[in-house]
Amino acid sequence: MALQSMTGFARHAATYSGSKGGAEGDTRIVWEVRSVNGKGLDVRFRLPQGFEGIEPPARTALSRHFSRGNFQAALTVERPDAKADVALNEAYLANVMAVGERLRAQYGLAPASVDGILALRGVLVEPQEAEDEQARAGLEAAIVSTLDGALAALSEARRTEGHSIGAILAGQVDMIAELAQRARNDPSRSVEAVRERLAAQVALLLDTPNGLDETRLYMEAAFLATKADIQEELDRLDTHVTSARQLIGTGGPIGRKLDFLSQEFNREANTLCSKSNAGSITAIGLELKAVVDQFREQVQNLE
C-alpha cells in the first residue's frame, strides 16, 4: 500500500448533456480540489448558488478517498445557453426595502445606496432554466461523478509525493541506525576506556587533604559509570528503527504512527546526550537529534 502525502492539487472537468443531447445543451462541470496538512479530515466547499445540496454526497465521496488533511473543493458549473442578463428578486427586494425604511425611520439611519442593496445576497439572481426533478438529479449525479475524477487525480498526486517522502524517510531511518551503531562502537565505551576514566576520577578525589576512603570512592564511581551507560537507549533505538522500516514498507495512512516513533527517537537521543560522559558520544547524540528533527518534519506531510 502506497504512502500518501497530505499536500496536493487536482482539477477535473466534464460535460453533461442531460436530456437535450448535442453540444449546444452541454453543461460544463469543473472541480478544483487542493489539500494541505491537517491533524484530521477537514473539508470546505465553495459551491455555486443553488447547488448547496451537492455538499453531503460530495463530503461522503471525499471521506471514501482520504482520512487526513485540510481540503478545499471548488465547483464551477457553466451553462453555455444561460442568458447573460440577471433577474431581480422582486419579492425579496420589497422585503429588504421595507425593513430598511423601518430602520431609517426608527433610528435615523441614512438611506441605503443602490449598489449596497444590489450587493445583498439574493437580490440579484442568475436566471436558471426550469428543470424537472429528473433532470436536476441527473446533473447532480454528474457533478458528484466529476468530483470522483478530481479526487482520484488528487489521490494520485498525493501518492506520487508520498513515494518521494517515503524514500527520504527511509534514508533518515538508515542514518539513525548508523548513528546508533557508531555510538555502540565508540572507543569511549570500551572496558579499558571506562576503567581509565574511573581511575582518573578516583585519583583526582584522593588527591585531597580529606583522606577519602579509596574503596568507597571506587564503588561510587562504578555506580555512576553504570548509571551513565547508554546500552538501553541504543537497544531501544534499534527497536524503533525496525518498527519505522516496517511501517514505511507497509505504507498506507501511517503518518500518526511515524509521528509517535519520531517522538520516541527524540526521547532516546535526549537521554543519550544527558547520560554521555564522553565528547564523542555527545557529538553523536547531537547529530542524532538533528536527523530526528528532519525525520519528524517529513512525517508531518504524510497521511
From TrEMBL:
This is YicC family protein. It comes from Paramesorhizobium deserti. The lineage of its organism: Bacteria, Pseudomonadati, Pseudomonadota, Alphaproteobacteria, Hyphomicrobiales. The keyword Nuclease applies. Its cofactor is a divalent metal cation. Keywords: Endonuclease, Hydrolase, Nuclease. GO terms for molecular function: hydrolase activity; RNA endonuclease activity. Signal peptide: none annotated. Residues 188-303 form the Endoribonuclease YicC-like C-terminal domain. Residues 3-165 form the Endoribonuclease YicC-like N-terminal domain. Belongs to the YicC/YloC family.
